[in-house]
From TrEMBL:
CDD domains: ABC_MJ0796_LolCDE_FtsE. The keyword Nucleotide-binding applies. This is Lipoprotein-releasing system ATP-binding protein. Residues 19-245 form the ABC transporter domain. It comes from the Bacteria. GO terms for cellular component: plasma membrane. Belongs to the ABC transporter superfamily. PANTHER family: IMPORT ATP-BINDING PROTEIN, LIPOPROTEIN-RELEASING SYSTEM ATP-BINDING PROTEIN LOLD. Keywords: ATP-binding, Lipoprotein, Nucleotide-binding, Transport.
Length: 245
């Protein structure tokens, strides 16, 4: 059942909880005037993400993994249920509150990098800081620092077209983390990369967990990577089960 009375800084197994979803349900209604039933993606789904962990979500195509990440990022609304991150229920946000949440509390990386081609790597990474009102010199400094952490300290001035696929994805990882969000949401971040480059990007994610106490939720079809995460959850038949990959 949805519980909107969660305390802000509750704990689970002695570890602070970063995000808790309860009773999460997503149903697409039948289209009026057309044959066909409603689409139930998931019903009464519960999910707890604890500080510092890296959690993998696996499941067959079309089971709703990306939709779940969109709900957690406040890019979509559930049919029912609550998503508590920090001290607020994300599902009740106004558009302005959702935008602020996406800028401050969550970072996300998608399968495609979505870098702005007319800007340099450093400017792309600085963008979320500029959007929140940080001055340009400070934002560029912070961006350079994060590009150094993802191994691209020598590529600050390159535009996305001058970078390899793996480098582009590392820039998008730096852009997601430059605001130091509570939670990183990653939707198949290695899905568009060859095996060796995918290993570099996933290895980097593991290193950032070790070095910076990152917390992340990762959707992946790569079962080897899923097995290297702290927990694996499988989305199947509308529910989320603890699983081994
Ligand atoms: N507006 C809509 N009305 C009805 N069904 C929809 C609508 N939008 C999305 N869907 C369905 O929701 C399902 C879940 O899509 P989603 O992208 O979340 O799955 P996924 O598990 O991430 O898949 P993949 O692994 O292929 O990326 C799909 O079957 C899609 O057709």
């Amino acid at each position: 059942m949805a519980d909107s009375t969660l305390e802000p800084f509750h704990e689970s197994h002695g570890v602070p909880v970063v995000l808790r979803a309860t009773g999460l349900t997503k149903i697409y209604p039948a289209v009026t005037g057309k044959a066909g039933a409603e689409v139930v993606l998931f019903r009464e789904l519960d999910l707890t993400i604890r500080s510092g962990e890296i959690v993998a979500i696996v499941g067959e195509s079309g089971t709703g993994k990306s939709t779940l990440l969109h709900l957690l990022a406040a890019l979509d609304r559930p049919t029912a249920g609550a998503i508590v991150c920090g001290d607020a229920d994300v599902t009740r946000f106004t558009a302005a509150e959702a935008a602020r949440y996406r800028n401050r509390d969550v970072g996300y990386v998608w399968q495609f990098h979505y870098l702005l081609p007319e800007f340099t790597a450093q400017e792309n990474v600085a963008m979320p800081l500029l959007a929140r009102g940080m001055g340009r010199p400070a934002a560029l400094d912070r961006a350079a620092e994060w590009l150094g952490r993802v191994g691209l300290g020598g590529r600050l001035e390159n535009r996305s077209g001058e970078l390899s696929g793996g480098e582009q994805q590392r820039v998008s990882l730096a852009r997601a983390l430059v605001t130091e969000p509570r939670l990183l949401l990653a939707d198949e971040p290695t899905g568009d990369l060859d095996n060796r480059t995918a290993e570099t990007v996933f290895g980097l994610l593991e290193q950032l967990h070790r070095d910076h106490g990152l917390t992340s939720l990762l959707v992946t079809h790569n079962l080897e990577f899923a097995n290297r995460c702290d927990r694996v959850l499988r989305l199947r038949n509308g529910s989320l089960e603890e699983a081994s990959a």
